[in-house]
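Meet our chain:
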Amino acid sequence: MIKRNISNNLIGLASQVPVVTVIGPRQSGKTTLVKNSFPEYNYVNLEDPVNRMLATEDYRGFFETYKEPVIIDEVQRVPELLSAIQVMVDEDREKNGRFILTGSHQPSLQRGIAQSLAGRTSILTLLPLSMNELAQEGRLEDLSTDQLLLKGFMPELYRAGTREPAIYYRDYLNTYVEKDLREMLEIKNLDRFLRFLTLLAGRVGQVVNLSAMSGEVGVSSTTLSQWLSVLEASYIVYKLKPYFSNIAKQQIKSPKIYFTEIGLASYLLGIETENQMNRDPLRGNLFENLIVSEVLKSRFNQNLNPNIYYMRTAKGVEVDLIVKKEEKLYPFEIKTSMTPNKSFSRHLLSFASAEKNAIKPRIIYTGQSYPQLNGVEYVYYKDLGNYLND
C-alpha cells in the first residue's frame, strides 16, 4: 500500500475537531486512507442498501449499531444523516475525533455540511496519487513520462494484478456516469455529455469557449456551463483561474481547464499505447496537465487552499502556472523538452520584473535540473515535489 501524504493532517485534525470529512473523486483512495488512519474505529459504508435504509429510516438505531468513534463512508448517500451528527456533536462539543466522514463532493453533501456541520468539521480533499507519493515508495523512477501520462495516478492501477489502464478508465467512466451523474443531473442525451467530456480532454490547458463548443455538442452554452460545474464539483476537472497581474491591463480572464486525473483525459482522447502518446500532438498539453494537477495535489495534501493561477495577456505574454504562498508569487513554465532553451525563460522573466512579489521563476521540464540557467531555475519534473514547500 502506498502511504498518502495527507494522512498526518487527517490524524492531526481528528484530535482538534469532532468531525473530519474527506472528499474527493471516486476511487481516489478515501476509504483506504481513513481505514488505515483509524484502524480502531467502527466502519460503515452507505453504499450498502441495508445500511442506507437503516440510516434513512432509523438514525438512532443506526448509531446504536455503529457506535462512535465511527467512519461513515459515502455519506453523500444519506445527507440527512448530517443533521443527526450535528445534534450528537452539540451534546458534547469538547470531544474530538468522533466521526470520520467520506464522500464524493456532490451538491447534496456540500449543502449538508454547510447547513449542519459548519464550525464542527474540517474538510480535506484527497485527489489520486501524486508523483511524490510514488517516489517515496520507490515506484516513480522506472515509469517513463509517456507511461505516467497514459496510466495516470489512480491507486487501483498501482495494485498488483489490476486491469489495464484503458479498461480501468472505461469502467471508471461508466461508474461515474451511472452513480454520480444520475444523482446530480437529468441528462436526456448521454452521448452529448460524453461528447462534451471528450472535447474538454482535447482542450486541456486551454481557455474553453462554451459558446463555440455548444455547436459541436448540440446543446446550449447554458447547459454546457451546468455540466462543467458538475464535472468540477465531482473533481473530474479543475478550472485554473487567471491571475490579475500588473504586467498588462488586457488579460485573458477566463479559466483554463485541466483534468484531475491525467489518465482519464488520455483515455478520452483514445490514446492507448506509449508510442501513440509520444507522437500525439496533445502530449505537451497533457504534460502541462500532469504538472498542474501535481501542484494541486500538493496544496490539498497540506490542507491548503489551491491558490494557483495562470496568466496570459492579449499580447501573448503567458505564464503557465503561478503559485501564491504568503503573498509571494512562484511562477512556472512547463515544457516537455529535455533541453534548456533561452526562449523558455522570456515570459517568466517579464513576469518577475513586473511583479515585485514574484520570486524563484522555474522551468519544469523533462531534462536535467540546473540551479540557474538563463536567469531561471530548471527543474526535472519528477523532482517537483522537492520544490513545492520552499
Observations:
- The chain has a mean pLDDT of 91.
- The CA atoms of residues 58 and 209 lie 48 Å apart.
